[in-house]
């Protein structure tokens, strides 16, 4: 992980530097292009102005006056020296005037061109220099060609200085970009460094209390730190719950295992009668059954969560199933002087489901309701058809479940605060939820109408989905 962060840190630094330098290079290229085009336009305007003035002199006063003007022309206009040449139809030089430093150019080569070649701009190069001579030409008549030329020296010098300054500034900017990019990358990766440091501390010490400090910026990396903290809190809760669950399972398994061992030892004592051995074997089977129920519940939950729970789907009458399950638990309710009432519509309310699993889910709800209800109270089992689908609800008058625990009670092996000291493993509601999800339904916990708890099993519509609520109770 440390190597990964360093690699990412380096890549971000390179990326930021590349972006900054690329932006500067693009800006420099744009400025260079604009500057170069401006010089070219200025030179073109100079050519046009000169040739236009000569053309006006020729048109107004004739060829003689034009040559007189050429002889009087100062070959330096402002700070710009230029060349003037006049030639006949055979491109023989009639007049040529240029600054002395331009002798390095082979101006005699101009007579080697054909007249038609002067329709375009000509470039004359001098050996050993970076400056060119640009020449524009205009035919005043069939026997008179006027040419004006200027040097690209000024343009070349400015461009050369500009390029040199850009390279120097780019070198300085490169160093600044690396420094700035390093700072930005460090700030950007700070939350990841916090995550790494917290993870390393947890791995080293095993203490899940550590948390990633948040900057409060609300950006994606800050959100990552918050999610990491939430994950740590969730893991801490799960581990604490697991510890409690292991203790609870160990405690609950200890009793049947101890009874099983004691019964088996009793059966093996010398002088034990056949009747006593049979009773011992019966007790062993009962204790084994308790253990198997617990282990089978855990396996069923695993299958449901993995989506592999096998269901034998068939058309079921919810009213008939709930009556059968209630009959099984009336004896237990009577022992605590608890009245168990079943309220359902007279007509058949059918769903598609697994009969054994629906009985198991309903039985778990009734078992919890009776277990946690005080003596001389009542437990009610409702069945009705709502707009969302058929519903089974079990309501008791027990201590109830706090709002902060209504989602936690469905966690595997979770036991609420009101269940402390009561026999159980915390698998009942987890299994109910797994069975309902396997059937495509839901389970929810609500406060009871007169106190206690109401657990609602919501099934999907198996028919045409019409809403025909029986309104037995406010579920």
Q: What do these coordinates show?
A:
With 475 residues, this protein is an alpha+beta fold. The protein has three domains: 157 residues, 2-Layer Sandwich (Beta-Lactamase); 87 residues, Orthogonal Bundle (Helix Hairpins); 146 residues, Histidine kinase-like ATPase, C-terminal domain (Heat Shock Protein 90, 2-Layer Sandwich), CATH 3.30.565.10. It contains eight helices and 13 strands. The strands form three sheets. Strands 1, 2, 3, 4, 5 and 6 form a six-stranded antiparallel β-sheet that branches. Strands 8-10-11-13-12 form a five-stranded mixed β-sheet, covered by helices on one side. Strand 12 and strand 13 form a beta hairpin. Helix 3 runs parallel beside helix 4, helix 4 runs antiparallel to helix 5 and helix 7 runs antiparallel to helix 8. The longest helix is centred in the first third of the chain and has 71 residues. It is rod-shaped, with a radius of gyration of 49 Å.
């Amino acid at each position: 992980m440390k190597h990964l962060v360093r690699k990412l840190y380096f890549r971000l630094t390179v990326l930021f530097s590349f972006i900054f330098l690329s932006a500067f290079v693009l800006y420099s290229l744009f400025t260079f292009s604009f500057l170069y085009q401006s010089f070219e336009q200025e030179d073109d305007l100079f050519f046009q102005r000169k040739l236009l003035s000569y053309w006006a002199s020729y048109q107004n006063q004739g060829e003689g006056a034009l040559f007189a003007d050429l002889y009087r022309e100062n070959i330096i206009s402002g700070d710009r020296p230029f060349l003037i040449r006049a030639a006949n139809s055979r491109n023989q030089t009639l007049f040529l005037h240029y600054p002395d430093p331009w002798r390095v150019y082979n101006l005699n080569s101009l007579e080697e061109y054909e007249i038609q070649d002067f329709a375009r701009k000509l470039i004359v190069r001098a050996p050993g220099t970076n400056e060119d001579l640009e020449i524009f030409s205009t035919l005043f008549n069939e026997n008179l060609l006027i040419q004006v030329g200027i040097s690209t020296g000024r343009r070349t010098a400015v461009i050369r200085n500009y390029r040199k300054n850009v390279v120097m500034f780019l070198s300085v900017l490169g160093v600044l970009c690396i420094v700035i990019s390093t700072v930005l990358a460090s700030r950007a990766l700070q939350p990841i460094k916090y995550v790494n440091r917290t993870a390393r501390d947890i791995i080293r010490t095993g203490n899940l209390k550590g948390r990633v400090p948040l900057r409060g910026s609300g950006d994606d990396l800050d959100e990552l730190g918050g999610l990491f903290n939430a994950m740590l809190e969730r893991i801490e809760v799960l581990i604490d719950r697991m510890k409690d669950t292991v203790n609870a399972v160990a405690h609950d398994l200890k009793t049947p295992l101890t009874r099983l061992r004691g019964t088996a030892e009793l059966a093996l004592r010398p002088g034990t009668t056949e009747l006593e051995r049979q009773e011992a074997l019966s007790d062993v089977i009962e204790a084994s059954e308790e253990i198997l129920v617990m282990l089978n519940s855990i396996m069923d939950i695993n299958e449901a969560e993995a989506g592999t729970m096998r269901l034998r789907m068939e058309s079921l009458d919810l009213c008939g199933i709930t009556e059968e399950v209630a009959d099984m638990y009336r004896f237990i309710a009577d022992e605590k002087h608890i009245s168990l009432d079943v309220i359902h519509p007279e007509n058949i309310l059918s769903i598609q489901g697994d009969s054994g699993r629906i009985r198991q889910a309903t039985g778990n709800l009734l078992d919890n309701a009776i277990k946690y209800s005080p003596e001389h109270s009542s437990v009610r089992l409702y069945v009705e058809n709502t707009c969302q689908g058929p519903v089974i609800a079990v309501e008791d008058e027990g201590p109830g479940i706090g709002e902060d625990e209504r989602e936690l009670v469905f966690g595997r092996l979770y036991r609420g605060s009101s269940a402390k000291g009561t026999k159980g493993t915390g698998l009942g509601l987890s299994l109910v939820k797994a069975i309902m999800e396997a059937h495509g339904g839901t389970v929810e916990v609500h406060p009871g109408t007169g106190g206690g708890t109401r657990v609602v099993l919501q099934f999907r519509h198996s028919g045409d989905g019409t809403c025909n609520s029986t309104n037995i109770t406010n579920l």
